[in-house]
Amino acid sequence: MPFVYRFEEAGGLGRELLGGKGYALAEMARAGFPVPPGFTITTGACRLFHRSGKVPEGLWDEVERGIAALEEATGRAFGGAGLPLLVSVRSGAPVSMPGMMDTILNLGLTERGVEGLAAATQNPRFAWDAYRRLLAMYGEVVLGVEAAVFANLLEAMKAERGAERDLDLSAEDLAELAARFKRAIEERGHRFPEEPWEQLREAVLAVFKSWDNPRARVYRRHYQIPEDLCTAVNVQAMVFGNLGEDSGTGVGFTRNPATGKKELYGEYLKNAQGEDVVAGVRTPEPLSRLKEENPALYAEIAAVAEKLERHFRDMQDFEFTVERGKLYLLQSRAGKRTPEAAVRIAVDLVDEGLISEEEALLKVDAGSLPALLRARVDPASAPEPVGRGLPASPGAAVGHAVLSPEAAEDWTARGFDVILVRTETSPEDITGMFLAKGILTARGGMTSHAAVVARGMGVPAVVGTASLRVEPGKKRFFLGEHELKEGDLISIDGSTGAVYLGEVALLESGAGEELKRLLSWADRIRTLGVRANADTPEDAQKARELGAEGIGLVRTEHMFFEEEKLRWMRALILADDEAEAKVALKRLFDYQKQDFKGILRAMDGLPVTIRFLDPPLHEFLPPLVELERKEAQGALAPGEAKLLKQVRALAEQNPMLGFRGIRLLLIRPEILTMQLEALLAATRELRAEGYDPRPEAMLPLISDAREVEQAFERLEPVFERYGFRIPLGTMIETPRAALTAGRIAPLVEFFSYGTNDLTQLTYGISRDDAGKFLPDYLESRVFPYDPTERLDEEGVGRLLALSVREGREKNPDLKLGLCGEHGGEAHSVKFAARIGLDYVSASPYRVLTARLAAAQAEVEKRASG
Amino acid sequence: MPFVYRFEEAGGLGRELLGGKGYALAEMARAGFPVPPGFTITTGACRLFHRSGKVPEGLWDEVERGIAALEEATGRAFGGAGLPLLVSVRSGAPVSMPGMMDTILNLGLTERGVEGLAAATQNPRFAWDAYRRLLAMYGEVVLGVEAAVFANLLEAMKAERGAERDLDLSAEDLAELAARFKRAIEERGHRFPEEPWEQLREAVLAVFKSWDNPRARVYRRHYQIPEDLCTAVNVQAMVFGNLGEDSGTGVGFTRNPATGKKELYGEYLKNAQGEDVVAGVRTPEPLSRLKEENPALYAEIAAVAEKLERHFRDMQDFEFTVERGKLYLLQSRAGKRTPEAAVRIAVDLVDEGLISEEEALLKVDAGSLPALLRARVDPASAPEPVGRGLPASPGAAVGHAVLSPEAAEDWTARGFDVILVRTETSPEDITGMFLAKGILTARGGMTSHAAVVARGMGVPAVVGTASLRVEPGKKRFFLGEHELKEGDLISIDGSTGAVYLGEVALLESGAGEELKRLLSWADRIRTLGVRANADTPEDAQKARELGAEGIGLVRTEHMFFEEEKLRWMRALILADDEAEAKVALKRLFDYQKQDFKGILRAMDGLPVTIRFLDPPLHEFLPPLVELERKEAQGALAPGEAKLLKQVRALAEQNPMLGFRGIRLLLIRPEILTMQLEALLAATRELRAEGYDPRPEAMLPLISDAREVEQAFERLEPVFERYGFRIPLGTMIETPRAALTAGRIAPLVEFFSYGTNDLTQLTYGISRDDAGKFLPDYLESRVFPYDPTERLDEEGVGRLLALSVREGREKNPDLKLGLCGEHGGEAHSVKFAARIGLDYVSASPYRVLTARLAAAQAEVEKRASG
Q1: A245 near A270, Cβ under 8 Å?
Q2: Across-strand partners of A651?
Q3: Interatomic CA distance for residues B139 and B180, integer angstroms
Q4: Which of B201, B552, B703, B814 has the fewest CB atoms within 10 Å, counting from its CB?
Q5: Are the C-beta atoms of residues B707 and A763 closer than 8 Å to each other?
Q6: Crossing angle, helix B513-525 and helix B847-864, to 10 degrees?
């Protein structure tokens, strides 16, 4: 396969091979857009370079033939006398990575060539300007000299000459500047090659290498772009926007990228090269100004924009140059847009007949939807953040910092909005979390307690904020260098992870009719069901409003953390004899029944899957360290000695792998049967009230089919007593449950994949402790993404696929759901659809993501099948 | 298929169908042994009964035909007048379960029949004796009346009559006793059927049901006997050992079951039924006495014994009855024997030409071998144990109880043998464990720290002793009701789990030449390699003596727990800057190099696999609770505040799933490279000294191939610096490593399966915490065996098999080993052989088990292939 394609030959070749920019240029060339001639060096060449560490054989021959073609097309000679052929060299990866890769303009120019250029254009100033620009860009990109060196020299020169703008410098000034640039390069041990071919070769290699620069790596990690995509290199004849007042350069968006409104949007800078705009060296003017100044040119640009959209069938971000009145298109690509704009554009394009509804679904990032429902920080007025953590639950919040659940109650009672600021949260913080407008923690990852609960409640949260240190005892906390006290106003942005001092301005949610229409198309096309994880009637109601078709996971233990209930749960755990235990159990039964009724009523007519008690008993007791500290201080209250003894007896080295879930339920079966009784009693009462409750129940932490058998044996008499049954299933959340799914399947009516635990066990990673190494792992690319956030298809996904196959083989009626946090993450939802699950279950706000991603999976499946 | 086979028809049918007893009776009948006529109801009938809960259709018809055949053979009628046909009804499962199932004799006798029997034998006493025996056995086995009821009535009667022995009771006494037995039965709401057929049907059903009695279940669980094997029922014409002085009954072993010596061994009781012997109601005399009293009978028995051995080609345990001078064989089966006897008998049978070497290998329980090398409790003089835990490391020990490592040093220095008694052990106890003759803990399972380390060191250990409570602060401990103080003498038996007060008599190891010969045959036949897990030169030396062909696992962290090394390890962890860290690292390098040299020297010429540092750093620091207690008491020493801060920073919720293994090594690569340097330096120095060191090194806790790549990149410069390389591999101990083995395999030279962690992660069970539910799980048969002890083939084994296949596919030269505790467990070793691993690695003493089990796997493979 060739390494080099001329734009006009490359039409129809893929984006993978040509990169986004090369692909667009080829498309534009083919469609007759005014593109300067050029050629693309494929991503394949770059990949070969990175794999072998050597320049692929024959590459330079092909590049030479490419340049020869340019010479023919332009009538100019590369490195020749007179008006020479100058080229731009730009990177272009298959996926847009703006600002990440480097560009060199005016390449091919030498000191000798400057003279020829000056003579041929009769514009020595332009010639020297082009040369000093080349020196600076080449110096920075190829030789690694800091950009500031050249910028400082330019500023110094302007100061010397009393020049206000770059344009005020004369040809002589620029020649002198070029000389200074060269000296600066040499002082740093480098050499600028006065030979065009050497310039070209080194520039191409520099683009190849820049694929691996730290910024690019960070970007790829953030956007989960595969490492071996590699970049293409586009070599294109230069056109000049700096040949005078009838020249210029600009960028345009075919629609407003912030709102999605259909209007030409962009900027233009007269007598300048494109990098002046991109780099912000000079301040361009809005395109709307051009409309007044040069209506003809504006109309031409607008016409090109319109044509681009019709051609690419999407909102385009394009760069153009006007050389002595003639418009050239330098590049065009799908424009970045806000989530709000994405939705509006997708819907508008359908209305305009440009794309189908299916295509519209693919144009919106499913993961961005929850943010649409939340307030956000107004980017126009936001100050610099003073800290940055993980964007755990989208939306922005402003409030008074409170450092304990008690303080949260206090301040809320006094009428203040509060943000709960904790080192990390635990179930005991629940009341505080309910009251808070936002949650900020120092520790924890995207699936930490704070993150999961916040997403569930729809409360904005920033977690794992490394620069945060909380000292609740002293009622103070630190954000980096800033010391703050309880009650100080702070703002957080759960969509970006930013933390601000004081109050920042918020924008209200911008979602509306367009989102509803888009999601209605999604619902029509998707085959994967979408349920929500919810533990309260309020959450259930919210989820239903957001389109959930049932509740896939009710964590019954969350119902026990409220003060009064917790008291009885403790009474049950600490009971001295059966009589005491029975009293506690009866109370818990009553509470549980009421809770179940609330959720079942909210989800009237829709399935609600209850998970039997999952956590270890010590989660309901005070922390061991606290009691031990009291003991050491001789400060144990009466009765706490006994409590300490039981807390000690229940303490575990690895609670995640301990006495919890089915293990606890089989050894304390009175809890298991109480829960089923409460569920059946709730169901019976609701039916009597005319409702249509549809409860299901499932066992947590199964690792063997016999656990299921024995638990179901315990439940059988309860069904018999109530005279009706409900569907029973199990979580599949240990690797062994997945590996023996064929044995478990015939016993149950459904599986629900608990991918949180399954991921933790498959990797041997505790999400609570992962903070010590996971950030490093992501930084150094050991893991391409956080598997607790996005489902690992290779390992965890293999267990899922295998158990789906073997489970259905042994029980063709088996229903399959997924109720881990992954159920609200777009890639994972698509994977769930691909392996044939019946539904996913996500936290209420992420139901939107799941609905759209499920539809996208279906569209993609139809496209590929 | 028929449910009933007469003994003489059943020859050649399998043990599965006939049960062990039925099979032996059929074989004996076929071989012409003097067996009373009878028939076997198959295990199939029993299985059908348990599955359906009903009597299989047609069963009673077949039984009636069976009885008819007996009537014909004996000339007596079932329930008839005159001398009636009486039968015994006995259970007989395919696997020997002595004492577990129930037997009824004299069945068919009724009150009316007693008269006929008395008249026909002219022995009313015998007739009433038979009847009262039937009443008692039927009452107990079929009707569930406690045996003590009948025993008490018998004793009361003897007291009334002034009778010393049962034999002193007259016919009238026995008739009266029978009447009292019947009354006792009726008083308890039951009825003894005076109808032979009803007796027979009920008895057969009672045997069926007894398969499920608690004792039988416990036995099966203990010996891992499948639940659905079920039992056969043998119905056999009664012969009578109580017809006078020329009658009698006895049991014999064809060789001494304790020592294995070839000598007729057994007991005989004149004028008695077999159950008198079995139940110990009367005390029999040794068979050797019979040799003097009745040489002809003795010779006849000896001849039968000799013939039995030749026929069954194994040591036999047989029951016989002499009826009026005629010898009948009632049953014969392979005799239970001590491990010592098993080895001797297997070797002797080969020498006698009765069996092949391959067959000899199958006659010894591989798991029993380690015990052969240890002292054991003399069963003759042992008192009642005062506690019982898990038999974690075989052998017995006597010593003064010490409750801390410091006390161990103290008492040892004063010249006492000590037993370390702890709630549980941690790495900080290592010095104490080294000094102790035995280890006793209250918590922990078969793979707890105490168990693993004790087995590794060959020190007897009993762990998880529920009745033990230790109060080191008060220098006292409790064993159930007994309060003891530090220094008190106790004894433990690590082969049985028993704990004794004071000193018990020990027997020295009885293994010798026979064991060597047996293992030499095993080594010749096995294809699976056997290495040892060892962390010290002493252990390595021991392992080599026990036949290890290399070291499969050196846990390098164990080298850091000695006081001086621990100090430097802490210095490294707590280092404020790089300079401090470097000093510590240099010291650790020196220690590590010396340690490596020691092990490599001991294993000169054999492979030694070093595992890079595995545990989390906080394991090297004082426990958090201890420091927090001090802090609460205001008792922190200078410098400890900083220590507390770091311990807090390193604390983890689930350390097993935390910052350890490869995760730690990638983020603290200086430890990784230091360890490799130490290993290469040790290798180079040993080579210079003329040794042939063969080091290998592996990474722990891999979950992704990229971890391996990045670690190896770090190691590459070290190899280059030293100018030679060694084989590198990884542990496979997370499910994900197994699931992605195909990705990892091309990067490495070997895999080593860490089945301890792999089992814990696959199940989601921490072995440290499993004590809270695993005993219950085993008791209630949720788990058929402890998967941390015996490899779970269905789940964990599936991961192994899958990764073996995919690993070899991607790297045909890949070497595969297993270094978890399972490497020393016989079933697991066989599994390792079956899936084609290259070697297993076991703690030194369990090398013997591995060698034999590996050979057995090969013999079984040849037999089945």
Answers
A1: yes
A2: none
A3: 12
A4: B201
A5: no
A6: 50
Q: Which two tokens stand for residue B854?
A: 């590996």
pLDDT of residue B279: 46
Region for residue A106 given its phi and psi (left: phi exceeds 0; alpha: psi -120 to 50; beta: otherwise): left
Mean pLDDT, residues B214-238 taken together: 81
Binary contact (A735, B655; C-beta < 8 A): no
DSSP state of A845: G
Confidence at A754, pLDDT banded by 50, 70, 90: very high
Contact A368, A74 (CB under 8 A): no
One-letter amino acid of B837: L
Which strand (E) or helix (H) includes residue A295? helix A295-312
Q: Is A739 on the interface with B (CB under 8 A)?
A: yes
Rounded to an integer, what distance in angstroms lies between the CA atom of residue B592 and that of residue B610?
Answer: 11
User: From CA A825, how far away is CA A847, in angstroms rounded?
Assistant: 10
Q: What is the pLDDT of residue A368?
A: 85
Mean pLDDT of B246-257: 90
A281 has a pLDDT exceeding 80: no
Question: Distance (Å, rounded) from C-alpha A620 to C-alpha A626?
Answer: 14
Maximum pairwise Cα distance, chain B: 105
ipTM comes to: 0.77
In whole angstroms, how far apart are CA A758 and each of A451, A473, A854, B735? 18, 37, 22, 10
| Whole-number Å distance between alpha carbons of B101 and B215 | 9
Structure tokens at A206: 């520099």
* Cα–Cα distance, A786 to A765 (Å, whole number): 11
Shortest CA gap B68–chain A (Å): 44
Residues of A with catalytic roles: 449, 819
Both structure tokens of B860: 């079984």
Q: Is the pLDDT of residue A213 over 90?
A: no
In 10 A of CB A700, how many CB atoms? 25
Name the nearest CA neighbour of A307 among A110, A578, A34: A34
Contact A174, A118 (CB under 8 A): no
Identify the pLDDT of residue B794: 96
What the block records as the tokens of A745 is: 């399947």
Contact B739 A733 (CB under 8 A): no
Measured between CA atoms, the residue of chain A closest to residue B648 is A625
The H or E element containing residue B489 is: strand B489-493
pLDDT at A277 over 60: no
Cα B436 to Cα B410: distance, rounded to the nearest angstrom: 12
**Cα-atom radius of gyration of chain A, to the nearest Å?**
32
Q: Which stretch of DSSP H or E encloses residue B611?
A: strand B607-611
DSSP designation for B336: P
Average pLDDT on B1-17 reads 90
List, for residues B489-535, the tens digit of each pLDDT value: 999 998 889 999 999 988 766 567 899 999 999 999 999 999 999 99
Helices (H), ranges, A188-268: 196-210, 214-222
Q: Is B50 in the active site? A: no
| H/E element, B398 | strand B396-402
Contact A340, A259 (CB under 8 A): yes
Helix (H) or strand (E) holding A713, with range, is helix A705-722
Q: Which of B764, B780, B795 sits opposite A757 (nearest CB)?
A: B764
List helix spans (H) across A414-512: 430-435, 449-457
B657 touches A: beta carbon within 8 Å = yes
- Quickly list DSSP for B704-732: SHHHHHHHHHHHHHHHHHHT----EEEEE
Instruction: Using a CB–CB cutoff of 8 Å, tell me whether A473 touches chain B.
Output: no
Selected residue of B227, B769, B777, B786 to mutate for chain A interface (largest A Cβ count, 10 A): B769
Strand-pair category, A694-699 with A607-611: parallel
Residue type, A358: E
> In the sheet where B87-92 sits, what is the strand order?
B4-6, B38-41, B232-237, B87-92, B103-107
CB contact under 8 A, B766 and A794: no
